[in-house]
Amino acid sequence: MKLLLDFHLLVWLAAMTAKLQAQARPFIEDSGNELFFSSASK
After folding, report:
1. Is the CB of residue 30 less than 8 Å from the CB of residue 3?
2. Of residues 34 and 14, which shows the higher confidence score?
3. Who is most buried in 4, 8, 25, 29, counting CB within 10 A?
4. In a domain? residue 13
């Protein structure tokens, strides 16, 4: 699966903060998924 993620999520992943919902973590950690990060942020 291809996942388009917000840039803030990358920061939260690096910091391992609680802001990353437990429901999202399995999708992000699945090595079968392709992660793409949007550089467009407010």
Report:
1. no
2. 34
3. 8
4. yes
Cβ of 16: how many Cβ atoms within 10 Å? 8
**In-domain check, residue 39:** no
For residue range 5-16, what is the model confidence (pLDDT) as tens digits? 888 877 777 777
Residue 41's pLDDT band (boundaries 50, 70, 90)?
Answer: low
3-class DSSP assignment, residue 38: strand
Residues 6+ apart with CB under 8 A from 2: 33, 34, 36
Cβ neighbours for 33, distance < 8 A, ≥ 6 positions apart: 1, 2, 3, 27
Cross-strand bridge partners of residue 36:
4
Number of domains in the chain: 1
